Amino acid sequence: MKILSVEQIRQLDQYTIQHEPIAPINLMERAAQTFVDWFTARFTTSYPVKLFCGLGNNGGDGLAIARILMQQGYTIEVNIVRYAPRESDDFMHNHRRLKLLTTLNYIEQPNNIPAIRHNEIVIDAIFGSGLDRPVDGIAKSVIETINRAPAKVVSVDIASGLYPDKPNGPDDVIIEPDYTVTFQLPKIGFLLPRNSRYVGQWHIIDIKLSKRFIDQTPTPYFYTTPEEARLLLRQRERFSHKGTFGHALLLVGSYGKIGAGVLAARACLRSGVGLLTVQAPRCGYAVLQTAVPEAMCRPDTHQYVLSGQSEIEGIPYEEFTAIGVGPGIGKAPETANMLRTLLSQYRNPLVIDADALNLLAENRDLMSLIPEHSILTPHPKEFERLTQKWENDYDKLEILCDFARRYRIVVVLKGAHTAIATPEGDIHFNSSGNPGLSTGGTGDVLTGILTALLAQGYDSVEAAVLGVYQHGLAGDLVGRQRGQIGMTATDVLDALRWS
Ligand SMILES: NC(=O)C1=CN([C@@H]2O[C@H](COP(=O)(O)OP(=O)(O)OC[C@H]3O[C@@H](n4cnc5c(N)ncnc54)[C@H](O)[C@@H]3O)[C@@H](O)[C@H]2O)[C@@H](O)CC1
Ligand SMILES: Nc1ncnc2c1ncn2[C@@H]1O[C@H](COP(=O)(O)OP(=O)(O)O)[C@@H](O)[C@H]1O
Ligand SMILES: [K+]
């Protein structure tokens, strides 16, 4: 699903109005009706509703929502925040209609702000995507009152005070909703860590804006929906055999961190690889052969760290369909040498994770050796080591995009809504996953998954988008079955489902 900028959404509205065609006021009515459908499916008429609206089209939506809710039997008190002298035309239209049905409360000064009780639902329609400066004056006082109130808050389209696609200032006053119900497409601001309090649980509602315009409009930002992930998934052919699904190599582990290798190896096998070889320090040999009997194991000549040498022979990197390197490997000089040799010899895309990323950060000259379309999977700290500190989440996205383009690689910046940057400069945000995944070893599982997908012939972007989605989905399944708090990386790999 595409994510458009505020300006593009404005054009999308206009295009829909002209080409559907539909009068602007009817489009507002459709948006309001769709919001009400969402609302009534969650909250019964037993909840009193307090609506706060501004004077633009977000406020106009709010007034139309109030009228429809009233007609459906809800008790609703309407508060109009008079922060400016002018209203939008469609606000005025809905204002005239609503005035005929009920009395309206106008808030011009703090003592007009009503008390909000805990059993009430607040609908926030003060500012929408038209916000163009920090909120101040009476609107600021209203937002502060709502944020202090014990009631549940639902924001229409976007929390009032939050910018959809640029950073807010540190002192900006913004609604902290329980829910955001947004029109048609997600806003990029919903996907960024610093905005978490200003989004709550968010839902997209389809108000039938022009599909053609959306399809034609270029954007670097995408949000992976479950349907899109499913389309990437390849089915197995009847006459396939293990050779069809590639032979992967995982370079993993050091003394005390063989477990990372076990997790990556098991996840790789659970993700459909045909054959798997694991090279680990000698101290990991018995562990790996016992914990992952399906994998072949090459003991490194070094007892405690990976050096890339093996008693069998040096590693014939080029014989493997895909290679994943990093989980648990540490940063010993022998391991740095191994990484250098690997990057110099292997020409297919690699998956590079964990300490392999830290070794890249400490040996910058290695960056130019990375094969094109390799997948790097840093968490934010590893990414900062590879690049630089960022000022805000938007700055971080720019750095991410530049980095992926510059080295022609895929960068999977992990976290809630993992951001996957492509060599072309696009960013795909993930939609699956939950905070239960914030536990040691889940990153190793992801490395195993991505290596298996590369081995099976998925291209790097497909592998990253699909693998990250499936990893999060497995986490969601575990979350539903046994809760998020006790989730382990082993639970996640065991919950992987590929059909
Ligand atoms: N495609 C869509 O997404 C649709 C959007 N609609 C609604 O339209 C909204 C956008 O409407 P508008 O563009 O009128 O924007 P707003 O409703 O956000 O109103 C902004 C108005 O307030 C002023 N303003 C901005 N920041 C201010 C501040 N800090 N203090 C005081 N005044 C400020 C602006 O100059 C503008 O006049 C959306 O959020 C949505 O609710 C719907 O009506 C129909 C379809
Ligand atoms: N709050 C969260 N919501 C969704 N996914 C998360 C969250 N926290 C962590 N994750 C996911 O868990 C994984 C953690 O990886 P990483 O930090 O490398 O852990 P480790 O190194 O311990 O394996 C990543 O895939 C990340 O996206
Ligand atoms: K709002």
From TrEMBL:
UniProt-listed Enzyme Commission number(s): 4.2.1.136, 5.1.99.6
Binding site for (6S)-NADPHX: 57-61, 128-134, 157, 260, 328, 379, 444
Listed PROSITE patterns: YJEF_C_2, YJEF_C_3, YJEF_N
Cofactor: Mg(2+); K(+)
Positions of the YjeF C-terminal domain: 225-499
Domain YjeF N-terminal positions: 9-215
Keywords: ATP-binding, Isomerase, Lyase, Metal-binding, Multifunctional enzyme, NAD, NADP, Nucleotide-binding, Potassium
Catalytic activity annotation: (6R)-NADHX = (6S)-NADHX; (6R)-NADPHX = (6S)-NADPHX; (6S)-NADPHX + ADP = AMP + phosphate + NADPH + H(+); (6S)-NADHX + ADP = AMP + phosphate + NADH + H(+)
Residues engaged in binding AMP: K414, G415, A416, H417, T418, G443
Pfam families: Carb_kinase, YjeF_N
Cofactor, how bound (note): Binds 1 potassium ion per subunit.
The keyword NAD is annotated on this UniProt entry: yes
Matching CDD domains: YXKO-related
Subunit structure: Homotetramer.
Role: Catalyzes the epimerization of the S- and R-forms of NAD(P)HX, a damaged form of NAD(P)H that is a result of enzymatic or heat-dependent hydration. This is a prerequisite for the S-specific NAD(P)H-hydrate dehydratase to allow the repair of both epimers of NAD(P)HX.
Name of this protein: Bifunctional NAD(P)H-hydrate repair enzyme
Organism: Nibrella viscosa
